[in-house]
Amino acid sequence: MFEDQDAVAWTAMPYRARVVTADGEEIGTAESLLGDEEEDIFHGIAVKTKGGRLAEIPAQRIKRITQQGVATDLNASEVPELPAYREERWYGIEWGGLFRKHPEWRERRGS
């Protein structure tokens, strides 16, 4: 999925991008990035599943990130088994860039 689109860096992943299984079935939307931007370490994403659950997808299961969405190597039967999202260190989308016209992820810390 998304093979015909240019890949983007993990920090450029659009907020609420579609997240899909290996066969293209939509899992839900990307809600948070999990990682350390200073060290350029991508740990994964938090996804809000179609059932409304917030779950973590580890970086090794993410196969492609584009401006249109996130492709994983998951199959549909694995989605309910994803671990629940734990807010530790994540990035939320905010407006930044030249004249604040471009969205960018900003680090936020959980309590």
What can you see in these coordinates?
This protein has 111 residues and is an all-beta fold. It has a single domain (10-109), classed as Photosynthetic Reaction Center, Chain H, domain 2 (Alpha-Beta Complex). 0% of the residues lie in helices and 47% in strands. It has strands at residues 18-20, 26-36, 41-49, 54-58, 62-65, 69-72, 89-96, 102-109. Strands 1, 2, 3, 4, 5, 6, 7 and 8 form an eight-stranded mixed sheet that branches. The N and C termini lie far apart (36 Å). Residues 93-103 have low confidence and may be disordered.
CATH architecture: Alpha-Beta Complex
Beta-strand content bin? over 45%
Globally, the shape reads globular
CATH homologous group name? Photosynthetic Reaction Center, subunit H, domain 2
Please report the first level of CATH classification, the CATH class: Alpha Beta
* Arithmetic mean pLDDT: 82
Would you report the number of β strands?
Answer: 8
What oligomeric state is this?
single chain
Uncertain runs: 93-103
Number of discrete helical segments: 0
Distance between the termini: 36 Å
Class per helix and strand makeup: mainly beta
- Indicate the CATH topology: Photosynthetic Reaction Center, Chain H, domain 2
Query: Main beta sheet, described?
Result: 8 strands, mixed
Helices and strands, in order, run as EEEEEEEE
Radius of gyration: 13 Å
Number of domains: 1
